[in-house]
Design goal:
This protein is an alpha/beta fold. It is 34% helix and 24% strand.
Length: 280
């Protein structure tokens, strides 16, 4: 069985024989810091010569297989197969989140991310219960002090419609341009009350012919019925859908990551929080 590169040289003399005059160097400490606890303890308790023998032993075959994922990567020491379980609100589309997750996976390829979708109430409850490590959300009124919050990205609202709609000739759409139009109403949108208040303030009359909480149903009906809908820009996924920015007023939401205040992070969790704070 092959000894991991760098370890044998640190423990042997020039002829390749165990050199008992050497001690466990900082290099070895760094290597072992990436080894799972059940193996780490066994190796650290061994005498110097015994350490070298253990690494050659077939009984540590699993350690040998784990080794490539236990030592360095481009961004520093790797974290071995540690999962982060996150929640994402149903109203948050994939196109805004995907670049961040792809960048994080590139920099931390051994950290696994599990994503669970749900309503704000459901995800908040699961976060408090410890079932989730973090939640990605947008809650205009904010959260209480039991949560820590970091902004991830901003997202503008757009007007979406089918290719045959009269709005396709506009570069941008003012709210007053939509008065009297039939629309598809996104019932699950957390910004819905804000948009409706803006319509009332500007005396814009809209007529909802279809309402749904499902994002795919909203986009399907927009394409089929030649109507429009307000949607976050990164939630538009239907093929053939057209969109234009909504201006006067402009509506923007900030997607945030929340986790429980005072709850310690795992190494993987710390890496995830750092990635959010530096994400551009």
């Amino acid at each position: 069985m092959r000894v991991p590169k760098g370890l044998k040289e640190a423990l042997t003399d020039r002829r390749g024989a165990p050199d008992k005059s050497k001690t466990i160097t900082p290099v070895i400490d760094e290597i072992l810091s990436g080894v799972p606890d059940e193996y780490n303890g066994l190796l650290r308790k061994s005498a110097f010569g015994g350490l070298f023998d253990l690494l050659e032993n077939e009984s540590l075959g699993e350690l040998m297989r784990l080794w490539p994922d236990a030592i360095g990567s481009q961004s520093g020491r790797r974290i071995r197969s540690e999962a982060q379980s996150g929640g994402v609100m149903l109203t948050i589309g994939p196109l805004g989140l995907a670049p961040f997750l792809a960048q994080f996976q590139h920099n931390h390829s051994s950290i696994e991310i599990e994503i669970h979708e749900g309503s704000l109430d459901e995800l908040s409850r699961r976060l408090e219960a410890g079932e989730l490590d973090f939640v990605l959300l947008n809650k205009p009124m904010g959260l209480d002090e039991s949560f820590r919050i970091e902004a991830v990205y901003d997202e503008k609202y757009v007007v979406v419609f089918s290719p045959g709609h009269r709005l396709k000739g506009m570069a941008a759409i003012q709210l007053k341009d939509l008065s009297g139009e039939s629309c598809v109403d996104r019932l699950s949108c957390e910004m819905r009350e804000m948009v409706m208040a803006a319509c009332n303030e500007n005396e814009v009359k809209l007529y909802a012919t279809y309402r749904s909480e499902r994002e795919d149903s909203i986009q399907g009906m927009v394409l089929a019925n030649m109507e429009f809908a307000f949607m976050p820009e990164y939630s538009v996924t239907a093929s053939g859908m057209l969109s234009r920015p909504l201006i006067e007023p402009e509506v923007t939401r900030t997607i945030k990551m929340a986790w429980m205040s005072g709850r310690p992070h795992t190494p993987a969790g710390e890496a995830f929080v750092r990635a959010v704070r530096t994400y551009n």
